[in-house]
Amino acid sequence: xxxxxxxxxxxxxxxxxxxxxxxxxxxxxxxxxxxxxxxxxxxxxxxxxxxxxxxxxxxxxxxxxxxxxxxxxxxxxxxxxxxxxxxxxxxxxxxxxxxxxxxxxxxxxxxxxxxxxxxxxxxxxxxxxxxxxxxxxxxxxxxxxxxxxxxxxxxxxx
Length: 158
Known about the structure:
This protein is mainly α. The protein has one domain (11-150). It has helices at 11-35, 40-66, 75-96, 101-129, 132-136, 146-151. Helix 1 packs antiparallel against helix 2 and helix 1 (11-35) runs antiparallel to helix 4. The longest helix has 29 residues, at 101-129. The radius of gyration is 16 Å and the shape is elongated. The mean pLDDT is 89.
């Protein structure tokens, strides 16, 4: 039987990992809303709120502070950038109007896959590839207070 030991994160990546927890929670909330038959409008409004107040800043900061530590040709960097682009496109589509339940489910699935990819593959790759000094330079990142942003939302549907 193999042990699932926690992954030791460099200090520079810890706050990003904490953000990922809230991203995974968003995916769970979308699924909960769909399971309970909550209107897609209510779920979409929440997703857009969280994205505009938290997740978009997280994605942009990853791109500007983390991804650039890897060469543009790096396959894992390219995969993460493609996933960000796809998620941004799905959010833009939500903002255009009424989303179908299948589109919200797809977004939840993509968020889940994306955050797990970054945690299990990309961050390990960064820790193995980027010199310690490069990671130390970004250790000053201030984490978004995702809990306060989420607590401000009053339409609890999950």
